[in-house]
Amino acid sequence: MRIGFYPGCSLEGSSKEYNDSLFAVAEKCGITLEEIIDWNCCGASAAHNLNHDLAIALPARSLALAEKQGLTEIVVPCAACYSRMATSKNEISSNVTMKQKIENYIDLKLTADVKILTVFEFLQKYIFPVVDEHIVSKLNQKAACYYGCLYSRPKETATLEQTENPMEMDEVLVKAGATPIEWAFKTECCGAGLSVSRTDIVAKLSGKILQDAVDRGAESIVVACPMCHMNLDMRRPEIKKQLNKDINIPVLFITQALGLSMGIPAEKLGLNKHYVPTDKVVNCVVKMEN
Amino acid sequence: MARIGVFICHCGENISATVDVAKVAEKAGKLSGVAFSVDYKYMCSDPGQTLIIESIKKYKLTGIVVAACSPRMHEGTFRKAAEKAGINPYLCEMANVREQVSWVHPKSDATTQKALDIVRTLVEKVKKNVALFPIKVPVTKTALVIGGGIAGIQAALDIANAGHQVIMVEKKPSIGGHMSQLSETFPTLDCSQCILTPRMVEVAQHPNITLHTYAEVESVSGFVGNFDVKIRMKAKSVDMKICTGCGACSQKCPTKKIPDEFNEGMGFRTAIYSPFPQAVPNKPVIDRDHCTWFTKGGKCGLCKKICPTGAIDYETQDEFIDVRVGAIITATGFDLKHADFFPEYGYGQFKDVIDGMQFERLASASGPTAGEIRRPSDGKVPEKIVFVACAGSRDKSKGIEYCSKICCMYTAKHAMLYKHKNHEGKAYVFYMDIRAAGKNYDEFVRRAIEDDDVNYIRGRVSRIYEKNGKLIVKGVDTLMNSEPVEIEADMVVLATAVVANIGAESLAQKLHISYDQHHFFSEAHPKLKPVETNTAGIMLAGACQSAKDIPESVSQASASASKAIGLFSSSEMTREPIVAVVNRQAPPNFTSCTGCLLCMEVCPYHAIEKEEIKDRGGNLIKVAARVNAGLCQGCGTCVAMCRNKSIDIQGFSNDQMMSEVMALLNA
User: Do the beta carbons of residue B504 and residue B522 sit within 8 Å?
Assistant: First the structure.
């Protein structure tokens, strides 16, 4: 069994801890991820606003390379990368003219048959069957699972069972020994790519998300998207201005939360790389007796 | 020697744009047995029909083939023309070169060839056609009305008042349907019960109407004029003949906490109950799923002890009655999606997010709050209500692409009723478009906005959540620069989508009528046969066909009643003679049928019976099958089963079919 891996720019840069924790969890479960050789930018939030063909062609090249490498399944942990990859795959498999056009652009043949897994699907399919024997600790805290927009919409690429009230991440957190809270902001917008150009809007939207999680007693927020993480974790000074108060709730990646329950050291999971200190979360973790 | 005429229609450009009609006419004219062939722009028009009639007379034609549209469309038209020309109408056949050729193929020689091939097969068939004569069957002048809501009530009264018998079947303990649950009705704000209950009583008292409540249609067989219907009379556990409806049993029943369907779960009822005070018949039934006697095996029995007339009988079982009716009117109504369909609006877990029908009960004088609008969670009068139109409707991602039609109007009504009862209260309506096309409808909505100060916000609601005892409604105002809007409401009313009843699909299958992907019953033609179904003698009334308001339901009910009355206007009706026949031969054979009666076994319509052929002395000569032409639907199953080809369908005989096939193979 070979599982391909598309990191995208975030996992090599701003969200390196997402990358590290994903690999740490996979390694613990004896699973190796095979990176797509010579992968390129997925186009993210920029390409599809400028040129439709480019937005389809960029992910298509990485998909074609994966096929060339003999991969039939790839994990795409970043929500934006996943969304772009899935959109490209959908369009190519349903539109022959587009497929030919794209093959021309990228100078590669492709079938677009590669299965693209979100981080939830990857965990469910490969980690869940073996994870129980590796779980040694309980997160022992109330966690707010935040899914954001790109896993839940549009309908064509969303793989969540209930897009309006998804539960996939909640299930992972239950495995990790946390108590997921019921809250209203699971799929609300964090401000996403406006992070740089309109930080005020991000502060407003992300501020509401943080506030609701805190109001409902959450001790941590868990995410599966580098963009969400950046807005919720890095934009605290702006959020503070907006809300007129400090909010100190830490924001974890789903793989960091799971990693903690597997006894992987916080440092290896990159928990020291956040703007908001994560010690409180780490301190909540209790070793299970058996 | 056959003298066949072939008439090729252009259908304007429908056929001639892709088929070379002149060439088809020319080639058809050269076929063996064809005496005349011609093409014409509109064969179904008056000059077109005249052309056919004159040609039959002039060329002494013995049969004709009209190459045009589907026989479903114009077979009747051309057969009438043939009859006018003096030949038996069943000597006219149609070659479908529109639906099966020109509409589905591009313009090409192959397309023209296919049209010619179809014409050729029909020419060979028509050579073997014989004169047939319509079958006359008696009509049972009784109508079955399924469903006792306003549509069923209207249809039943119209038919009964025309002097015909009506049997009404209603699955609930009372007739009245959804209309009996409504508070006031748009656009006049008159009280729903005040206009409905007299009609309900009229149904119960009408000498021509037999009412079966707490009953369902079990099975239907037969055909137009003579349907045989089996009705399941669900065990009421109360003898309706003895019961006086005093209500002592319901008052004493100890099982009091059953969510009340009539009040949409916002009140409670007992296990022995009559759904509402104005119910017709106003006599209780026992809900066996909740009654202690039935759930706990013979414990309790209080109602039986106190019933002054001894009407309670725990031993009654479901009973079946068989009725024969000439026409069936389906008026089974609709259902509403409930709040639990919407995860984004709290999955139904917020008590104060309710649906439109629940609001009707809150606003109704006979409702759980006696008409005061109080929210379900704590009984407080809400200071701010948000109404959400199009909850589920017109939403492809929810699987409901259609407009539920009634919500714009009832939402305006709800907001208005709230404002009339709470002058200080604030009402907001989120909407996509306001669809108020109806007499005095738009005026009504404007009244809500302009006179009653209801705030209409054009935009959708993305989420509703609870915070600090308030319901936060997040939406967008698309007319205000698409600004996000957040309203802290005390109660939210969702105008949820109108959907088909849960049992609609299985009822449609029992009736052999078609339904659409949303399980609404299909009319025979969307424009010209809006109340008929594809099954002759079965009509539709009300929201079982599509979402409808009261005036529309009543109009359609009267329309379908008039179809039934029309059917009953003569004591017999004619049917197409396309039925199976067992051959008859001269004695001593009498028939080639050996009397194996396999055909009898397979006939889905029970149209085949055993016949004993006897001599004059009454001695049995032979047993054979005989087809009851009144019951036979011409499906041909018996023909396929017959081992020695003794049974055949008139107009579609084995011989005719073989000629068609051979015509194609011998091209």
Answer: no
* DSSP structure string for B460-472: -EEEEEEETTEEE
- Retrieve residue B557's tokens: 């009910």
**Cβ contact B385:B488 at 8 Å:** no
Q: Any idea which residue has 């969890």 for tokens? A: A25
The shares of helix, strand and coil residues in chain B, as percent rounded to the nearest 5, are 30, 25, 45
According to DSSP, residue B238 is labeled B
User: Which residues lie across from B209 on neighbouring strands?
Assistant: B166
The CA-based dihedral angle spanning residues B622, B628, B629, B634, taken in that order and rounded to the nearest 10 degrees: -90
B606: which 2 tokens? 């029970």
Number of domains in chain B: 5
What percent of chain B stands above pLDDT 70?
100
Domain with B229, as residue range(s), is: 142-234+318-333+501-567
Q: How far apart are CA A139 and CA A282, in angstroms?
A: 8
Q: Taking the CA atoms of chain B, what radius of gyration do you get in angstroms?
A: 31
Interface check A153 vs B, CB under 8 A: no
Band of the pLDDT at B471, cuts 50, 70, 90? very high
Read out DSSP for B335-389?
EE--GGG-GGGTTT-STTEEEHHHHHHHHSTTSTTTT----TTT-PPPSEEEEEE
Evaluate if residue B575 carries a pLDDT over 90: no
Dist CA B376 CA B153 (whole Å): 32
CB contact A214 to B (< 8 Å): no
Q: Are residues B297 and B264 in the same domain?
A: yes
The amino acid present at B591, given as its one-letter code, is T
Which run of H or of E encompasses B216?
strand B215-223
One-letter amino acid of B592: S
- Measured distance between the N- and C-terminal CA atoms of chain B, rounded to whole angstroms: 21
The answer to whether the CB of B31 falls within 8 A of the CB of B62 is no
Q: Do residue B344 and residue A165 have CB atoms under 8 angstroms apart? A: yes
Report the C-alpha gap between A148 and A187 in whole angstroms. 4
pTM of the prediction?
0.81
Cβ-Cβ contacts under 8 Å between A and B: the total is 17
Residue reference for tokens 């047993």 = B623
The stretch B160-182 carries a mean pLDDT of 97
Residues of chain A contacting B465 with CB distance shorter than 8 Å: 183-184
Contacts of B344 in chain A (CB under 8 A): 164-165
Euclidean distance between CA atoms B178 and B145, whole angstroms: 17
In angstroms, the first-to-last Cα distance of chain A is: 33
pLDDT tens digits, B394-416: 999 899 999 999 999 999 999 99
Selecting from B343, B466, B467 the residue whose C-beta is nearest the C-beta of A165 gives B343
A3-117 CATH pick, 3.30.428.10, 3.40.50.2300, 1.20.1050.140, 3.40.30.10: 1.20.1050.140
> Whole-angstrom Cα distance, residue B211 to residue B591?
48
For residues B556 and B534, give the distance between their C-alpha atoms in angstroms, rounded to a whole number: 17
